[in-house]
Q: What sequence folds into this?
């Protein structure tokens, strides 16, 4: 298993829709394991394959947020949201928008059909945090991002904040390590 780099907005690869998963063999199993390790290290509740530069229709979610709770890792390959209802405002974060939290309107409940890590089809009805996470991660598979759900002013402010962060990260990557300075 390996922790993979998470793409940060405004990386254009985040806008590439995922392709269907067709092979559930060893490479796919390794990808799922790497994604889980990456998500837990971040830490996050969900992670979509496009967020690590892999254009597949795959995301994982673990809503067990307490230290004493056992892991509840769920794998969603080729997911389809079959139905949704209700409306809820949720203060969302996203691993591709480090440090940002924005109020987003989501459906309160969803029904999803997907394949698990072994290619077996399942259906799930979700509400609460799981429903929010399913919608958020599903958006990533379509090339849609949290910023797209915001009003014009909030979108502009978040865009500017992420550009500043990207510029600061680029400057930090170019400067030599302190040990090397004379």
A:
């Amino acid at each position: 298993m390996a922790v993979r780099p998470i793409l940060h907005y405004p990386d254009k690869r985040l806008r590439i829709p995922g392709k269907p998963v067709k092979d559930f063999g060893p490479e796919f199993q390794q990808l799922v394991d790497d994604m889980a390790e990456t998500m837990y290290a971040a830490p996050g509740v969900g992670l979509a394959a496009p967020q690590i530069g892999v254009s597949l229709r795959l995301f994982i979610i673990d809503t067990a947020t307490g230290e004493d709770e056992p892991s509840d890792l769920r794998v969603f390959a080729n997911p389809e949201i079959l139905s949704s209802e209700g409306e809820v405002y949720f203060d969302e974060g996203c691993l591709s928008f480090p440090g940002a939290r924005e109020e987003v309107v989501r459906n309160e409940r969803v029904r999803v059909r997907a394949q698990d890590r072994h290619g077996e089809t399942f259906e799930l009805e979700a509400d609460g945090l799981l429903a929010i996470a399913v919608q958020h991660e599903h958006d990533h598979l379509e090339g849609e991002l949290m910023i797209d759900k915001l009003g014009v002013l909030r979108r502009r402010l978040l865009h500017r904040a992420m550009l500043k962060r990207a510029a600061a990260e680029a400057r930090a990557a170019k400067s030599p390590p302190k040990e090397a300075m004379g």
Remarks:
- The mean pLDDT is 94.
- The domain at 12-174 is CATH 3.90.45.10 (Peptide Deformylase).
- The first strand starts at residue 46 and ends at 48.
